[in-house]
Amino acid sequence: MEAPNHALAAASASFADALGALDGAMSRLEIRSARFDDADALASLARTTFCETFVEGFQMNYPHEDLQTFLAESYSLEAVRGWIADTRNAVLVAEGEAGLAAYVQCGDNALPYPGAGPDAGEVKRLYVSHAAQGHGLGRTLLERGLAHLAGREILIGVWSGNHKALRLYDRYGFKAVGAYKFPVGTVMDDELILARAP
Fold first, then answer.
1. DSSP per residue over 123-153, as a string?
2. DSSP string across 30-45
């Protein structure tokens, strides 16, 4: 009889334990409405996840000054406090033992699509930190955001090269209806506008 490979068995057990711990950490995440005292942590998460997604993930070659200007303007503490204070918005965060791990922001539509109705809503931002990905958290937050906008036409702006996001939104009934340029400093990203009927 062949002797068991104890090193391999130990490594497999260790890997399984690590996966179990990660799954446990994900199951302990709480999804809740953002509070004013979350603003600093949420601003930090927003800057980090934008860079993880586009600079690290998609290797977008934004000039340093353009990127820093965009992050400072779009995800400043004042800007994020404005998201939370705006009663037309819903900002939901996923919080675990290590702090905030993901968020979704939705509210009234502001995308440049003339075909949108006056009461259209928009999923404005949906980001999950790299450490929390792979457990369906993005889908869960999307569904919570869609529930907040239930009964309305819903629009989403998404970078045209983000095929994973496009496939996800397609599964939820979104279809491309337009396009626009999204400025990151002086760089203009090609964005698609997706829409779903009420």
1. EEEEEE-GGG-SSSHHHHHHHHHHHHTTTS-
2. EEEE--GGGHHHHHHH
Q: What is the mean pLDDT of the chain?
A: 89
Cα–Cα distances in Å, from 75 out to 18, 51, 160?
A: 33, 12, 22
Note every long-range contact of 83-92, with CB atoms under 8 Å and residues 24 or more positions apart, other chains counting: 83/34, 83/42, 84/34, 84/35, 84/36, 84/38, 84/39, 84/42, 85/36, 89/124, 90/33, 90/145, 90/148, 91/33, 91/34, 91/42, 92/31, 92/32, 92/33, 92/34, 92/141, 92/144, 92/145
Q: Which pair of structure tokens corresponds to residue 9? A: 């068995």
Alpha carbons within 13 angstroms on the beta-carbon side of residue 29 total 27
pLDDT in tens, 131-155: 999 999 999 999 999 999 999 999 9
The arithmetic mean of pLDDT across residues 168-197, rounded, is: 97
Superfamily (CATH H level) for 30-196: Gcn5-related N-acetyltransferase (GNAT) (3.40.630.30)
pLDDT tens per residue across span 32-47:
999 999 999 999 999 9
Which of helix, strand or coil describes residue 68?
helix
